[in-house]
Amino acid sequence: MSMVTEFEQQQHATSRVVFISLAAAMGGFLFGFDTAVINGAVDAVRGSFSLDAARIGFAVSVALLGSALGAWYAGPLADRWGRVRAMQVAATVLAVSAIGSGLVVGVWDLMLWRLIGGIGVGVASVIAPAYIAEISPAHVRGRLGSLQQLAIVLGIFMALLSDAWLAGVAGGAAKSLWLGLEAWRWMFLVATIPALIYGALVFGMPESPRHLVAKGRLEEAGNVLRQVLGLRSDVAVEQKVNDIAHSLRSEYQPKLRDLRGPRGLLPVVWVGILLSVFQQAVGINVIFYYSSTLWHSVGFSEADSFTITVVTSVVNVLVTLLAIALVDKVGRKPLLAIGSAGMTVTLGLMALCFSKATGSGAALTMPEPWGMVALVAANAYVVFFGLSWGPMVWVLLGEMFPNRIRAIALAVAASAQWLANFAITSSFPSLAEIGLTFAYGLYATFALLSLGFVLYAVRETKGVELEDMTD
């Protein structure tokens, strides 16, 4: 038996690595909570500050510009200070932003605090999947990496649930609640709770063994590997440390120039960028940022619109659990292909449904049975996304890049994702004024293009050690 084979048989997922992965994925919970909490506040904020479609679109999506900025600097920050310290910074920024957003006096300071919160989300979005990938055994890395997406969808669910509860208690998102503050302000303020929990959990997490090896702290790295992989043999620990050191010899200070390739960037970097862009271009965040407004506009009451939005987020959580069960059995690429095909059909059906609507804006109405068909299609769309592009992109971004460029390449890909998210989210109110049929037809076109991209460009990474990833 070779030494490599012996090592692969020895490593296994300890309860400690599962707990650590869950704690790291709490950053994903904040990611989902902070970005989705605006859903229940959109109409109230628009009314409070008398905003037109363009300005409410920017107010909702400005956090995503901050996320792009945070994602861009997360890699260098993580390489210099460590993955754990970077997560601590993200938790602090998110807590401060939540308080500031809830106490704003005008739309401009709301945009400022949302921008700051976005920076924290961007850092968390990069560091959590990278950290989980770096501490996980290869044979369960997909499932542990999928915890990031599970945490995101749970964060979305809790944000929408708290929005619905606060609006229900107050009698409407624009009505006063406790301390004379409107319910929409409390929607932002409650985000301080998960931020503080995340910060507390991070303090008990070990540093990534790959970061420790990169900094020359080999003994500490070996101790962490014993804890998270359950390695019993000193030979196996030493071999793993040496494997990491060998793969990291050119990674100590990764720069953008390391990503250069024959077509501007290395092929694997282009794949990462396009995975990020397509994940957003199919319009998923329109469902989670604007769904309450959307369903209200086609005849559902405000209370029913909140309920529908919460139910949709529950569907998202359930299918993400299914994705976690399948990712290391079926593989990343097949699930992406299934998701792309399903989203193309369901988005096309939604476009057809909205073509039957009459009126515009708040006066938009949809005759029966098209309203219910649109509702079913929207939830089916969420099923296909939650099974595939939601979790699989984060799994792939955390593991697909070679060790020597992982941090900087992930930062570039995540920044591209946030910029695409901003473009889709900020443009939706204006697209909706042109026509929802056009908007959803556009997203369906992107879903179809994503299918071709998966079939021809995405490589399967199931079961591959991080040290064996290539350009």
From TrEMBL:
Cell compartment(s), UniProt: Membrane
Annotated Major facilitator superfamily (MFS) profile domain residues: 20-462
Membrane topology: Multi-pass membrane protein
Pfam annotation, one family: Sugar_tr
Transmembrane segments: 12-33, 53-74, 86-105, 111-132, 152-174, 186-205, 265-288, 308-327, 334-352, 372-396, 408-428, 434-458
Keywords noted in UniProt: Membrane, Transmembrane, Transmembrane helix, Transport
InterPro entries named in the record: MFS_dom, MFS_sugar_transport-like, MFS_Sugar_Transporter, MFS_trans_sf, Sugar/inositol_transpt, Sugar_transporter_CS
Coiled coil start-end: none
Family: Belongs to the major facilitator superfamily. Sugar transporter (TC 2.A.1.1) family.
Protein name (Swiss-Prot/TrEMBL): Sugar porter (SP) family MFS transporter
Lineage start: Bacteria, Pseudomonadati, Pseudomonadota, Gammaproteobacteria, Lysobacterales
